[in-house]
UniProtKB/TrEMBL annotation:
Record lineage: Bacteria, Pseudomonadati, Pseudomonadota, Gammaproteobacteria, Pseudomonadales
SMART domains assigned to the protein according to its UniProt record, in alphabetical order: PGAM
GO cellular component: cytoplasm
Name of the protein: Phosphohistidine phosphatase, SixA
Organism: Pseudomonas moorei
Record Gene3D superfamilies: Phosphoglycerate mutase-like
A family per Pfam: His_Phos_1
CDD domains reported in the protein's UniProt record: HP_PGM_like
Molecular function via GO: protein histidine phosphatase activity
Length: 151
């Protein structure tokens, strides 16, 4: 099975009048996302799952448009920043070749969890960082990180 995990692009700073979930991408963030989206061209994506937060939704939409990906984005609560990696893994048992668009700390924690199991330091993933992780099946602690590409 193969998974891609994309952290959202650079977002507006956390302002006092905006809830964290309402922060939008900056112009720079949009460019970052498009550079990462280019790395997915030709990959056998079956679905795009995204956090409901605005910056993740914008990121997912940019990727979808760049790839000409037909299916709708699947917005899921289990990709918000503070979700436990094991909750995400439960959702992934029957899928492959999907893109997850999410946030730190979840992105770093999830990548670490899938490779090493619980209790290991998170992978470092910058904005619009794209990780590819795969394995014969979804086995916690035994997936291989093919790499994390930063725009």
């Amino acid at each position: 099975m193969k998974l891609w995990v994309l952290r959202h692009g650079e977002a507006e700073p956390h302002g006092s009048n905006h809830h964290d979930s309402e922060r939008a991408l900056t112009a720079h963030g949009r460019e970052e996302v498009l550079r990462s989206a280019a790395l997915l061209i030709g990959q056998p994506l079956t679905a795009i799952y995204a956090s409901p937060y605005l910056r993740a939704q914008e990121t997912a939409q940019l990727v979808r448009d760049a790839l000409g990906f037909e299916p709708e984005i699947r917005t899921v609560e289990w990709l918000t920043p503070e979700t436990d990696p094991d909750k995400v893994a439960e959702q992934l048992v029957s899928v492959s070749n999907v893109l997850l668009v999410s946030h730190n700390p979840l992105v770093g924690n999830l990548l670490s969890y899938l490779q090493h199991g619980a209790g290991h330091p998170p992978e470092k993933v910058g904005t619009a960082g794209l990780a590819e992780i795969n394995g014969d099946e979804l086995l916690i602690g035994s997936m291989k990180l093919k790499g994390i590409k930063h725009p």
